[in-house]
Structures are given as C-alpha cells and as structure tokens.
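Page 42, continued from yesterday. The earlier attempt failed because a stray header line got pasted into the input along with the sequence. Redoing it now with the clean sequence only.
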Amino acid sequence: MRKLLFIIFMLNSIWALTLEEAIEIALKKSPLYQIQKEKVTQAEFEKKSKKSKNLGKISFVGSYTHYNIPRTLTPIVPPITPGIVTSNDITSAGTVYEVMLFNGFADVSSIKIAEINKNLSQTELKLTKEQLVYNIKSLYYKTLSLQEQLKSAISYKEALEKLYKDTETGVKIGKYAKIDLLKVSSDLQNSIYSIENLEKNIKILKSKLAYTMGVESIDELIETKETLINTDLDTKDMYIYKKPLFETQKAKKAIKQASSLYYPKISLNLYYGKNMAKDSEEELWQGGINVNWNILDFGYKNSQLQKAKISYMISKLKLKDTALKLKKDLQEAKNRISIAKAKIVSTKKQLKLLKKIKEVEKIKYEKGASDMYDLLYAIAKYEKAKSELYEAKYDLSIQKAYYNYLTAGEK
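This time it went through. Structure tokens are written below.
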C-alpha cells in the first residue's frame, strides 16, 4: 500500500490520504521548506569560509614585461660585480602567501557570528517545519469540517425532499394548504445553494492544502483527531523565542566586530619566485609584516560602533516583545481550547433537545396542531446544530494544533 501511495505521490496527484501522510509529503515536497533546508547548508558553508579566511591565502603570481631599455633581472645590491644579466624582456613567476595576523579580533567575532547564524538557520528550519505542520493541520481539519457539514446539508435536503413529497400528497387529498408546498420548496432551493456553496469551499480548501503540501491536487481526506502534546518546556526553549534570542546574540557580537575598527591591522606577506630572461634566471624571495592603523576617519568608527549598539538594543526589545507575545498567545490558545470544548458539550445537549423538538413538531403538523413554518424551523435548527457540532469538533483540533505549534521546541 505504501509503495502504491509513493507512486501516486511522485505523479503529484494525491488521492485518499491521512493527516500523517499529508505532513510527510509536505516535508518532502514543499518548496518553502526545501528553501529553508538549503539556507541551513548555506550557513554551514559561511562558517567554514570565515574559518578558512583566517588561515590566509596562497596565490600564484606572474608577469611578462617588455622594456624600451634593458633592465636587470634582480635589484642591484652591493658589491656590484661585472657581468650583471640584463634584458628588454623579463618574465617573473612566483608564489605569495598572505595572512592577517591581527585585525582587532574582527576575525574571531565573524566566526562567532557565523556560528550563531548557523544555529539561527537551524532554528528557522525547525520553526518553518512546525509552521508547515500547523498550516497542513489547519487546512486538513477545516476541509474535514466542511465535508461533515456537507453531509449534514445533504441530509437536510433529503429530509426536505421527503417532506415535499408528503406535503404534495397531503395537498392533493386536501389535508394541507398549497402554501405549505411553497414553503418547503423555498427551503429546498436554499438547501441546494448551501450544498453547492460547501462543495466549492471544499475545493478551495483542497487546492490550498495541495499547494501547501507541494503537490498539484488531492481528493479524499481520512478523518483524524488532534492530540494535545503535553510539554514541560520553558518558554525560552521554544523555537518562537529562540529565533529572536539568536538574533540578539548576533547583534551583541556585532558590537565587538565594530570595535575592531579601533585596533591596528597587522598582516604577513611572503613571496618566493623567479625572474627569467633569455637563458638566465634569478631566484627571489622576500617576507614582510605590514601595519595599517586608522587613526582618524572623521567619525566613521564611532558611527559604526553606535549603529551596532543600537541594533543590539533593538534586538533585546524584540526579544522582550516576543516573550510577552508568546505568553499571551499561549494563554489565548488554552482559552480557545476550553471554549471549543465547552461549545462541543453545549451543542451536543442542544442537539438532543432539538431532535425531540423536531419530532414533536412533525407530529403536531401531521395532526394539524401547528403550521408548516414551525416544522421547517425545527428541522433547520436541528440540522444547523449538527453542522455546528462538526465545526466545533474540528475547531478543537485546530486550536490544539496551534497550541502544539506554539510550544514546539527543545532544550
């Protein structure tokens, strides 16, 4: 069965599937999730590049020059001896090694920032996964809810069709008035519209679900329920909080990086090569240390440092705002779960009462003790309560899924 489903998935057309299968497919095929995975790999290479840069670089250098007057292959140094080789055409080739020995700890800061970026991208990947799972669940449950409401609407339509036939027979024998037939017919037309409306909305939701999963289309969904994940995680361990936390850590390291502008830059440069002309060549090598210290830049260093400090302050405020919002969202999610549960209990009780009322109104109408309006109203209230019960059940699953999304994290 799994192999068959896999073949269907590869064709980008999904038929009957469970919620777990929908999530599994989305994690494999969703472009947005795949993009975030690539960003994690990108961050890993960024860290490697920062480390590699600190080791310096080895370059091959070479040149060919034609002069209008002969030049020596090497600089003339004492003691000057006769027979110095000269040429109008000189070729040089060699190897240069350059490395920064000290740059005010900017290299250390850049590596640490790259490490934080890596952790940040990994957290964003996990958060993207949880967002994707929640979106899949939300669309899945909403679709199931409408499908159940559609069944209820069809049942209501069938009940009206039966009532229409019974009323039509009653009109023929003079038991009911013709106006009763028109009343039933009016409600029947309204039920037909409701069914069409639900069918269209189901197609819209399925289209959205297919897009979120990264496939072209889906058909039947299998009924499922959401289980609330009990977690003892602290708020600071949740992915939603961790993301701005890493942003704050990165901003703090950026201050140290900006401070490096106040220090001198010291670098090492080594060269080994040869100068060649005709049948002669001379070996050359040299090594040196360069110092570059920016002592006056008319406020550039200070501006960069102040900008980094402000960015850090902003990131701390965002972190505080995230903590407050997460606390508020968690409390709100718990209350919504409680409301959904209460709605289910209330609707179930209401449904039992409305069923009895509908049965009583039907008997009263058949005996001529009430009119058609009372019966149609009782039937409509009963069917509406059925739809509300389906809606409440799946709304509870959606609220649980949202709470699971908020609390997702790791220590």
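Notes: Residues 106-172 form the longest helix (67 residues).
Reminder to self: strip header lines before submitting.
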